[in-house]
Amino acid sequence: MPTGLLGIGRSALMTQQRALQVVSQNIANVETPGYSRQEAVLTANTPVRFPWGNLGTGVSIVDIARRRDQLLDTAFRDNEGRAAGADTRRGLLAGIENIFGEPSDRGMSTALDKFWSAWSDLAANPSSSAARNVVQQRGREVAQLFNNYDRQLTSMRDQAIARVTNTITQVNDLAQQVADLNGRILASEAGGQTAGDLRDARDLAIDKLSTLVGASATPNADGTLTVTIANATLVDNTTARPLTVRFQQPPAPPALVPADLDIELRLGTSLDALPPTGGLVGATMTVINTDIPDMRTRLDAMASAIASEVNTLHRTGYTFPTNVPPGVAAGDFFDPGSVTQPVTAATFKLLKDIDDDASGIAASTNQNGPTDNALALAMAQLKDKPNTVSFGGEQGTFLSFFRSSMTRVGLATSRATEDAEAYKALALQAENRRQEVSGVNLDEELVSMMRFQQAYAAAAKLITTADEMMQTVLTLKQ
Fold first, then answer.
1. Number of folded domains in the chain?
2. Cα(345)–Cα(177) distance, rounded to whole angstroms?
């Protein structure tokens, strides 16, 4: 314990010098992501008691405090996770919109219009082989569009699943970092001091976790943090539980296996699926498990309805291979599928006989009337036939159902865009409030530097004065 003028002066010099080091650290890290402003906590040393009173013994630094507000961290992470999720969902839904590219002269709406128009042209000239070839080509184009939509949805889903898998690897790495930092912080703060740099690294990792999976952190009395996602513990003290991505178990036969098996997250050794998470992963999984399957199911329902309606009507017609009555009963126009392999957007195609030879396309419903056009007219009128598609209580014409599906995606994209903008604004506000507490203000640091510099100079002057006094005493003894 320093005593006397020289001892007090020495403690003052060392303390102000260390305080200046803290200021220097702040200034050096003004642009460092995740850095929290540090502050030297000064306290008077324990005084020495004399018969005539207590005498001070100088100053010392008891801690390098880290300026951080847990409530502001929580608010920022919550809004940042929601913003990341909404922005991710917006991007993926916009990708679904781009697959269809409506309105477009190459989209489904145009292809269906051309298909029905081709039947109308055939009705105008029911004996024309050229008109039949056009009907064949227009039907093939509609089928190819359905096939292409399905392939692109599958490709998009595969890419999204790969993104989730890669992101979960990052999440596990970050969770392990937090667990390791918990252990290091626990050891470093055993003496009562704050491990500011380690805590900054841990908070930065948790910020990233909140963006990726909507993680939240709860402080413990020993200085560690417990990290949770979807109400489950990801990090507990120095232990991190890894996340894994799994496909749901397919249904047992004879049930049909859906084209899109849901993916799920499992935590640690648990066999139960984790509830929906937030952040980027949660939004991506929602698109994988809900939005893409919903769109594919709607396309499947539409493809099946077109095949069913057209085939049912086409089977009532007759073809005339030799242009001489009686005609031959027509079969299906599109491939009808089977019980185990029903018509879907992926399998939708012309019947092989029709695909190979357009002469199998019927225009007449009169076995003895090769110039009859009743079937072709009825086919053209399917365009406006009500309730040709039924899906989940929704009914409409082929075109209205397709446009309704596009509208649903557009509205969902619009809502996601609005959510992303709102949460980004909230996250920015939270970050600004957090920076008011934790951020480094150069003007404030310069003021602090001047104060400590002046205190250091005063302490140096005190030692000089003490030395002069001692020299005077020594001179008197001579």
1. 2
2. 46
The pair of three-digit structure tokens given for residue 48, joined into one six-digit string: 């020495």
β pairing state of 48-50 and 53-55: antiparallel
Q: Residues 30, 111: one domain?
A: no
CA distance 202 to 182: 8
Helix axes 292-314, 374-381, angle to 10 degrees: 160
Q: According to the model, what pLDDT value does residue 195 have?
A: 87
122 and 51 belong to one structural domain: no
**Cα dihedral: 436, 442, 447, 450 (round 10):** 150
Q: How many residues does the structure list for the chain?
A: 478
pLDDT of residue 255: 67
How many CB atoms are located within 10 Å of the residue 355 CB? 16
Contact 66, 431 (CB under 8 A): no
End-to-end CA distance of the chain: 31
> Is 19 a member of any domain?
yes
Q: Which two tokens stand for residue 386?
A: 């009500």
For residue 258, the one-letter residue type is P
Q: Are residues 446 and 416 in the same domain?
A: no
Tokens standing for 357? 């030879």
Residue 433 lies in a domain: no
Is there a domain that residue 88 lies in? yes
In a domain, 432, yes or no: no
Dihedral angle, C-alpha 256, 257, 258, 259, nearest 10 °: -120
Domain with 311, as residue range(s), is 74-426
d(CA 171, CA 128): 65
Q: How far apart are CA 331 and CA 318, in angstroms?
A: 9
Q: Which residues of the chain have pLDDT under 50?
A: none
